[in-house]
From TrEMBL:
This is 4-nitrophenylphosphatase. It comes from Suillus fuscotomentosus. The lineage of its organism: Eukaryota, Fungi, Dikarya, Basidiomycota, Agaricomycotina. It catalyses: 4-nitrophenyl phosphate + H2O = 4-nitrophenol + phosphate + H(+). Pfam families: Hydrolase_like. Keywords: Hydrolase. PANTHER family: 4-NITROPHENYLPHOSPHATASE-RELATED (PTHR19288), HALOACID DEHALOGENASE-LIKE HYDROLASE DOMAIN-CONTAINING PROTEIN 2 (PTHR19288:SF46).
């Protein structure tokens, strides 16, 4: 986006997103700000629009609320050229006790209200890999993408011409790649868990 230094991002997300933005020198508001994590009802009459917000970035947010969604909606509808971005399209993520809504699901109310899909800047979009390669200068032929989800992690690796390793400790099951309704997204390698790599290493 080449966001000018005097412009800001409104964040629906947690400290990890803020840390990444800070490291890149991108100004932001929202996120973990206590004023946005409040349980008080949102009041449009007391809301002051920041004209410098040029993007709304949605990621996983365990404290998402009506205030954050309302402020994001105001920026996206009232600030000319404000971009609607998501960190990734994961619909769910696995916890120790079962599946929970993922980062991609956090943006669903805004998608519905705006009648518009956001731009995904993370998996499976190749944009993130291009940014990583620009900073790290890795060799794609000597790099492998490891993940537990076919439609984000593995697709992300394939989009960047990387080898891919699917681990079966998260979202995807063996049935998803070998069953009668197997996914058309096929990883190069499959293993039960990331711990199996210790065996390969001889430990």
């Amino acid at each position: 986006m080449k966001l000018p230094k005097d412009k800001k991002v409104y964040v629906i997300g947690m400290a990890g997103i803020e840390e990444e933005l800070r490291e890149e020198g991108v100004s932001f508001i929202g996120g973990t700000d206590p004023a946005d994590c409040t349980l008080e009802p949102f009041s449009l009459s007391s809301f002051s629009l920041d004209p410098d917000v040029q993007a709304v970035l949605c990621g996983l947010d365990l404290s998402v609320n009506y205030t954050k969604l309302s402020k994001a909606f105001q920026y996206l509808t009232r600030n000319p050229g404000c971009q609607f971005l998501v960190t990734n399209e994961d619909s769910t993520f696995p916890s120790a006790d079962g599946l929970l809504p993922g980062a991609g699901a956090i943006s669903a109310p805004l998608r519905y209200a705006l009648e518009k899909d956001p731009i995904s800047i993370g998996k499976p979009a190749k944009t993130m890999l291009d940014c990583i390669q620009a900073k790290v200068k890795f060799d794609p032929e000597r790099t492998i993408m490891i993940g537990d989800r076919l439609n984000t992690d593995i697709l992300f690796g394939q989009a960047g011409s990387l080898a891919t390793l699917l681990v079966l400790t998260g979202i995807t099951s063996k049935q998803d790649i070998t069953g009668p309704n197997a996914s058309p997204i096929v990883p190069d390698y499959v293993t039960q868990s990331i711990g199996d790599l210790r065996v390969v290493d001889g430990q």
